[in-house]
Amino acid sequence: MGIEDFGGGQTAQADVLVVTTNDVPGYQVTQVIGEVFGLTVRSRHLGSQIGAGLKSLVGGELKGLTKTLVETRNQAMERLVEQARARGANAVLMMRFDVSEAADVGTEVCAYGTAAVISRV
To answer: Could you tell me where the beta strands, DSSP code E, fall in the chain?
Structure first.
C-alpha cells in the first residue's frame, strides 16, 4: 500500500478550500452561508473482520481497516465539498470529523463545518 492509501485531503486545484481553522490568512470572510456536512456509513466486509480478528491476536496495525477508514473519511469530505459548492461557498471553515458506530452494522463518518465565501484581502 502506498502513501495515498493512508491519507487524504485536497489537491492544490480545489475550488472549495477546506480548513480546520476559523479563518484563512490573507483572506476575509465576506459571507457565512452556514453549516454543511457530508455523511457516509460503511460496513466492514467479512474478510477484513476475519483479518482484524487474527491480527488482534498478535498486535499491530489493522491496515485493511485503516484503508477503509481513510476511504470513508475522504468520501465524507467529498460530500461536504459538494454541499458547500451547491450552496455557493468557496470555503468550508472549522471542518471536523465525527466518527461513531451505526447500529452495530458499520461506522458512520460525518465531515462538517461552516460554509463561507472568502476573498483575498
So the answer is: 17-18, 27-42, 91-102, 106-120
Q: What percent of the chain has pLDDT over 90?
A: 53
Q: Which CATH class is domain 3-120?
A: alpha beta
Mean pLDDT of the chain: 84
CA count, 13 A, side-chain hemisphere, 6: 7
Tell whether the model's pLDDT for residue 53 goes beyond 80: no
Q: Count CB-CB contacts under 10 A for residue 104.
A: 5
Could you tell me the residue ranges of all domains in the chain? Answer: 3-120
**CB contact set of 35 (below 8 Å; sequence gap of 6+):** 112, 113, 114, 115
